[in-house]
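Hey, quick one: can you model this chain's 3D structure?
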Amino acid sequence: MTKKSVKDIDLTGKRVFTRVDFNVPRNEQGEITDDTKIRAALPTIRYMLAQGAAVILASHLGRPKGKPDESLRMDAVAARLSQLLGHHVQKVDEVVGEAVSLAAAALQPGELLLLENVRFHPGEKSNDETLAKAYAGLAELFVSDAFGTAHRAHASNTGVGQYLPAVAGLLMVAEIENLSKSVHHPLRPLVAIVGGSKIADKIGVLHNLLRSVDTLLLGGGMANTFLKAKGYQLGKSLVEDDQLTAAAEIMQEAAALQVNLLLPSDLIVADSPQDVPGAQAVAADSVQAGKMALDIGPQTRKSYGDLVSKAGTVLWNGPLGMYEVDAFAQGSIELLNILAQSEAFSIVGGGDMIAAVEKAGVDKQISHISTGGGATLEFWEGKELPGIAVLQEI
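Sure thing. Here's the predicted structure for all 394 residues.
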């Protein structure tokens, strides 16, 4: 860890602009269904309050497209945060402006202020200089604890760092240290599991992983594209026909580098995700017309599980089936349970995988659950993340 953290500076009496990632899943009624990301930020918040800082929190929620959206206000987040902290959280209904400036100026050491959804402002995603300066004008220090948005150069997570001393929060430190360890100093064998629906946004990370892993296990909808690239028929399964060449090239590269790249040998198929009674296991090369591959099959679970149980390090991004439907979450859950019982140093990343880990009930047995999806992938891809680059060096 070469970046300064909150523990490297004096926070006493300072107003601290803190970017957190409170982009939590909610139901149709706007109720928070998983507060993992809020809980992940608690150590940093508690530390700063205990040190006598006045803390200003900023986060986005959903995709409001640069204008206010009543369904995406931060009120429910403020209420849950207050409940978890056992501490009053003052919330303002604006991103910047006179009301925000007055509230920030009045904030006393040990007090907490949450801004409105930063993506209500059109300058947030464009990293608008005026907006970044307005954020900076609220405080004396900037703490970045939102690893989930570290791959985006936005006003509240990189722009503000141009005008205030910028340091990492405790969650950001944990993310950087654990992900760095997994990539640069892994215990061998190093096994990567990559799932999810599509490969289009994972081509770069797959190429990069081939240069460091011993085994690459593929699943989920993206595995269908690789299977079709091998000449298999996949029925009605999700396949990215425009990525068949990319899939073939990745398999060729794996062979050239002598990396063990495995695809599902069998699949759970059905007429549709709703056709749970009709689900059955078939060989990967025997998917009938009209059927959809919705999970990895029992033979694949066993072969993948054997490799995971013997691994020294396991990196996992993306579920191996349609985990939202319990019947098609079994491949992911079974492998997560094997991982939880193994001695491997394990990192599981991405919003879908956080939900899968919760469903499997193994969150305490995973070495590190990364709050990043795209950020985790880009870190593994070897890219410099702007939300980390802005932080001061030790």
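One thing worth noting: The chain has two domains: 6-174, 186-380.
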